[in-house]
Amino acid sequence: MNDYHLFKVLDLYPDATLGEVKSAYRRMVKRFHPDSAQSTGSPLMFTTVVDAYKTILSRIGTSKTRSPFTGNSFGGGVTHKPGAFDRLFGFGRLLVSNTHPDVKINAARRIGESGKKSAWVFLRKALRDQDERVVTEVVAAVRKLRIHQSVHELSALFLRTGAEVKQEILTTINALGYKKILFRLIIMAMEDTSQTLRREAVKLYFKNK
After folding, report:
1. Better-scored residue on pLDDT, 132 or 82
2. What CA dihedral angle connects 5, 54, 20 and 4, to 10 degrees?
3. What is the DSSP string of 159-198?
4. Sign (positive/negative) of CA torsion 47, 50, 53, 59?
5. Which of 55, 95, 180, 182 has its CB surrounded by the most CB atoms within 10 Å?
6. CB-based contact 88:116 (threshold 8 Å)
7. For 12-41, what is the mean pLDDT?
8. What are phi and psi of 189, to 5 degrees?
């Protein structure tokens, strides 16, 4: 198993910290342990998780903070340190390809902190995710990166999504400064079945009037 796949087994990207590796391992053991009530996998998957974790720890060696891919030694050698593009691509792949919502949510957050508008290629795909928690975090990332080209897709998404995502879309459109589109969405939000969304829409209306 190569280095990338070791981390993939734990649903991590190779720049994960040691703390993130341990946290992911605990989560995976709880999920796949044959004696666990929450077990959803086979004994083989449990063994694969344990082996990957042990191998990662052995390669990190004496480091207390970073993974091997961030410059630590693999048996004394110097490893590849990913650049910003490598990390962005890795988080983008996790966001659009991983099957676990928590991993996707974390990837979206990391993308939002990247400062890279080119991440729109991944965020755009993730707007179609089936989990609204993921979509909410994706919209938040769009706002943090100030991706103006997202406005029309966010407007279309507003028509077919839930209240939590709609609220994040209103916040994002407002932050990007598209007042005409904002007011159109506010009017629709005022007629939504969600009392929380209606209340937030009214606040935004009077704030921008």
Report:
1. 132
2. -20
3. TTS-HHHHHHHHHHHHHHT-HHHHHHHHHHHTTSS-HHHH
4. negative
5. 95
6. yes
7. 76
8. -65, -30
